[in-house]
């Protein structure tokens, strides 16, 4: 999940701060970023909403960041 890492770093956040701000478990964020675990829908929604991107962008299915991109 390099997109999560890229988005997090672009905001200047540590993994711990991202976890605190979103309520997503720190171990999960670390696992998503390293590819040890696939992200579930609930956390995908939370992180996509937090970063204001589409879930497809978050999981690498598209290069379009915006939620409303056509």
How would you describe what is shown here?
The chain is an all-alpha fold and 70 residues long. Helix content is 59%, strand content 0%. It contains five helices and no strands. It has helices at residues 2-10, 15-22, 26-34, 41-51, 55-58.
- Poorly predicted tracts of residues: none
- Secondary structure tally, helices: 5
Q: What order do the helices and strands follow?
A: HHHHH
Strand content: under 5%
What is the number of strand segments?
0
Structural class comes to mainly alpha
Radius of gyration: 11 Å
Largest sheet: none
What does the average pLDDT come to? Answer: 91
Q: What is the CA-CA span between the terminal residues?
A: 23 Å
Question: What's this, in brief?
Answer:
This protein is mainly α and 70 residues long. It has 5 helices and no strands.
Compile the SSE list and pairings.
Blueprint: H1 2-10, H2 15-22, H3 26-34, H4 41-51, H5 55-58
Helix pairs in contact: 1-3
Features:
mainly alpha
